[in-house]
Amino acid sequence: MNKIHINFEAEKNDYPKDLSINFSKKLREVEKEIFQLGFYKVFLLDQTCCSICDNCVKSRLECKNPKFSRPSAESMAIDVYATVRHGFNP
Q1: What's phi and psi for 68, nearest 5 deg?
Q2: Which of 7, 35, 46, 86 has the fewest Cβ atoms within 10 Å of its own Cβ atom?
């Protein structure tokens, strides 16, 4: 199994938005490739809140890019800290 692991430090009030946008875009491309391989249930959970638009409308119903936006793991009630603490072995 291939894994993607990115490790960088960022201050909460100085988060590298450009890095996040580019990283999310590349992950969506990987998601598409995996889907095209026949794994049709693939679904990316973004590492941050969606940051595709500069001026987010803050509403899933009014989203200007619903095809590309992805929820964060936390928004799906996944306890990311507990998952990492106990180890993640898919």
Answers
A1: -105, -20
A2: 7
pLDDT along the chain (90 residues), means of 10: 68 74 83 93 77 77 84 79 75
CA–CA dist 40, 64 (Å, integer) = 24
Q: Is 61 left (phi over 0), alpha (psi -120 to 50) or beta?
A: alpha
Rounded distance between C-alpha atoms, residue 30 and residue 33, angstroms: 5
Helices marked H in the chain:
17-36, 80-86
Cβ-based burial of 60 (10 A; exposed 0-12, middle 13-18, buried ≥19)? exposed
Q: What is the pLDDT of residue 83?
A: 80
- Residue type for 82, please? A
Among residues 40, 4, 44, which one has the least CA distance to residue 24? Answer: 44
**Cβ neighbours of residue 60 closer than 8 Å, sequence gap 6 or more:** 66, 69
